[in-house]
Write a structure and sequence with these properties.
Elements lengths: L10 H9 L5 H14 L39 E6 L18 H5 L6 E3 L6 E3 L2 E6 L5 E6 L13 H12 L6 H9 L1 E8 L2 E6 L7 H4 L6 H4 L6 H4 L11 E7 L3 E6 L19 E6 L3 H9 L5 E3 L3 H7 L3 H4 L3 E7 L6 E6 L9 H9 L3 H8 L5 E2 L22 H10 L3 E2 L5 E3 L2 E2 L1 E6 L5 H13 L3 E6 L2 H9 L5 E6 L8 H4 L18 H12 L3 H18 L2 E3 L1 E2 L2 E7 L2 E2 L25 E2 L1 H13 L7 E4 L6
Parallel strand pairs: 1-10, 12-26, 18-19, 18-20
Antiparallel strand pairs: 2-3, 4-5, 5-7, 6-7, 8-9, 9-10, 11-23, 12-23, 13-20, 13-21, 14-22, 15-16, 16-17, 24-25
């Protein structure tokens, strides 16, 4: 999980000009150079001015936490992976940008600081040192002077100034970012080209989780205008991470290339990571076809989380002869909110009793027991796994036809001749929008048992890009999907009325509840940890009471098949790893490598009929009992 403002004082600049007076040509040239470097860098308050760093700052860093990489790692090779659809844009903000491929781009853009995946301590990323202000609203950062954009330009304080200008611009057509960077981040204060302060609009606990923002390259974007969305759809924007897109063909593939002279390659927490030279994502729209590609060695790894793949489909000679390994790795982190998201702007779901009835008509337990072979666990609510911030007394609504009947009759519905609940000539028939073909058997079971309860599910399968577009435009009835997580529960994006009834926001249930809004506002404003924990639990209970989210499954592990030329560290992964072969994430990714000799050995062995000892790894070091 990666982490993500301008009061520029006059004193330092005035002192500089006073002490620089005289006939010293060098000083004059330096002054001219500094002014030229600052030219066109506009801040929300004064232009191109340096503030005076407050006295008594206690600089912190972290070079003592354990590394989470292997010194056995080798550089080189190509990782072949697959995506089910081509992204609608390479932009990471604006219309159609919130698709699943977005993370591959964002993971190659570093933040000021990050979180160690095992200790949860702050570690350096683009900043080498940090400090906390006495006002509880400001953090100070010393930037790493080695940091470079992929076009070779240095990363400076002004790139953080520009982040605010960029994110606040109406031209990016990103209401959430506009709002957040206006209402949550007050300013970036520049003390010199490599020292900044980032100030929150209000004091918050866990300030470091809010202020570790990323830079934005002004030298690339310049002054934005209303052509931004169209002009930058397919541009390769300079980044600060280990890889950059080097080639792509729309609808076919996207290729990333490792920067061999990457500025951070020898930093403590980056060393021996991000090892493959290229990462190629081929568009293979059908999951079963991806499996066939994997068996032919055209994909290097394949997810075996789905029970039929782990138990049945992998029970073939390629695994038995040791050409492909299997691993079951348990992790320990916040759980994705996987489930069914009900669009309350649809007439059928405006009555909470109907939302509750819908939940009681979903036989999730049967899916877990029959389709998923009890390998998955029932998710209780939308914010599970957040430690003290989660209310573990909340239980999901379970399948109960009698409760469905009571709720629907109280809402004025009657059973039609086809058995489906109806009112005023409208049937309780809703579309469930999803993208992953392998989830169809789960939905078929839900559909069959929902019919018994008088609810008709119409399965609406789209490719992932079309699915996200439909959901973000709020055109769905029920969305079958999950959200990524943060270290602390975050409620405003997905549950506050500020983000309801409008496209391109995360409030996909269109929840508009004044009482819930007040709780969320208090949570965001509170500085007291005990108060925030209490509010967090109240918010979770209020969300549960809306009935707008039906939680489905929790999967506290990773299961993978991978060709034996892929190598993992002896510890396999971190506490926070949710993919052992993630090539990019600076938090947990890039730990693996390709052994070229072993690849040749394996391919030759297959031709000659030579076999190896099968490898099945079950790693429970982070399993929560």
């Amino acid at each position: 999980m990666k982490l993500k403002t301008i009061m520029l004082g006059l004193v330092l600049v005035l002192c500089f000009f006073i002490t620089g007076c005289g006939n010293n040509d060098t000083k004059k040239n330096n002054e001219k150079k500094d002014r030229l470097e600052s030219k066109s860098l506009v801040t929300p308050d004064n232009e191109n001015k340096y503030a005076v760093l407050p006295d008594g700052i206690k600089w912190l860093t972290n070079d003592s936490d354990p590394v989470f990489s292997s010194n056995k790692a080798q550089k080189g090779g190509i990782l072949h992976s697959a995506i089910t659809s081509f992204p609608m844009t390479f932009r990471v903000v604006g219309p159609d940008s919130n698709g699943s491929f977005r993370s591959a781009i964002l993971d190659n853009q570093l933040s000021l600081i990050n979180i160690h995946p095992n200790t949860d301590n702050i570690i350096p990323e683009l900043a080498t040192h940090w400090a906390f202000g006495n006002d509880k609203k400001t953090m100070y950062f010393k930037l790493d002077k080695d940091a470079r954009w992929s076009d070779g330009k240095p990363v400076t304080a002004w790139d953080y100034v520009y982040t605010l200008k960029f994110m606040r611009s109406e031209h990016i057509i990103a209401p959430w970012y506009n709002d957040y960077y206006k209402k949550e981040i007050e300013k970036v204060i520049v003390y010199d080209n490599y020292t900044i302060g980032v100030k929150s609009t209000k004091a918050v606990p866990d300030l470091y989780l809010k202020l570790g923002i990323s830079p934005t390259p002004e030298h690339y974007f310049g002054n934005l205008d209303n052509t931004f969305v169209e002009n930058y759809n397919w541009k390769i924007v300079p980044n600060t991470g280990a890889y950059q897109i080097s080639k792509f063909k729309k609808g076919k593939f996207i290729k990333f290339k490792r920067k061999k002279d990457w500025w951070a390659k020898d930093k403590k927490y980056m060393k021996n990571r991000f090892n493959v030279d290229y990462v190629v994502f081929d568009v293979i729209r059908d999951y079963n076809l991806q499996w066939e590609y994997f068996k032919k060695g055209k994909l290097d790894a394949f997810g075996l989380t789905i029970p039929k793949y782990w138990h049945d489909k992998s029970n073939i000679s390629l695994f038995k002869k040791g050409y492909i390994n299997k691993i079951w790795f348990f992790n320990d982190h916040e759980r994705s909110a996987r489930g069914m998201w009900l669009n309350q702007d649809k007439e059928i779901f405006k009555d909470r009793r109907v939302c509750y009835a819908f939940a009681h008509a979903m036989n999730i337990e049967k899916v877990i027991n029959k389709v998923l072979r009890k390998d998955y666990f029932r998710l209780s609510q939308a914010f599970s796994g957040y430690g003290r911030y989660s209310d573990y007394t909340i239980k999901p609504r379970t399948y109960d036809i009698k409760k469905v009947e009571t709720l629907m009759r109280s809402a004025g519905f009657t059973r039609g001749i086809d058995g489906i609940w109806q009112k005023d000539g409208k049937r309780f028939s809703v579309k469930v929008t999803y993208s992953f073909e392998e989830h169809t058997p789960r939905l078929v079971v839900l559909k069959e048992d929902a019919l018994k309860a008088g609810v008709e599910l119409v399965l609406d399968r789209l490719d992932s890009t079309a699915m996200f577009k439909k959901i973000l435009e709020k055109k769905h009835d029920v969305a079958w999907m999950g959200w990524s997580t943060n270290i602390r529960p975050s409620y405003w994006q997905g549950w506050h009325s500020d983000n309801a009834h409008k496209p391109q926001t995360n409030n996909i249930t269109n929840t508009d509840d004044p009482k819930l809004d007040k709780l969320i506002d208090k949570y965001r404003a509170s500085l007291d940890e005990k108060d925030r924990i209490e509010l967090s639990k109240k918010i979770q209970r209020a969300i549960h009471d809306t009935g707008a989210f039906v939680p489905t499954f929790m999967i506290p592990y990773i299961r993978l098949g991978y060709w034996r030329w892929l190598e993992l560290p002896e510890f396999h992964g971190t506490k926070r790893s949710d993919s052992l072969f993630d090539p990019f994430s600076t938090t947990t990714g890039g730990l693996f490598w390709i052994d070229a000799k072993k690849k040749d050995e394996t391919l030759n062995a297959m031709k000659l009929g030579k076999v190896f000892k099968p490898v099945v790894i079950v790693d429970k070091q982070f399993k929560v009992e």
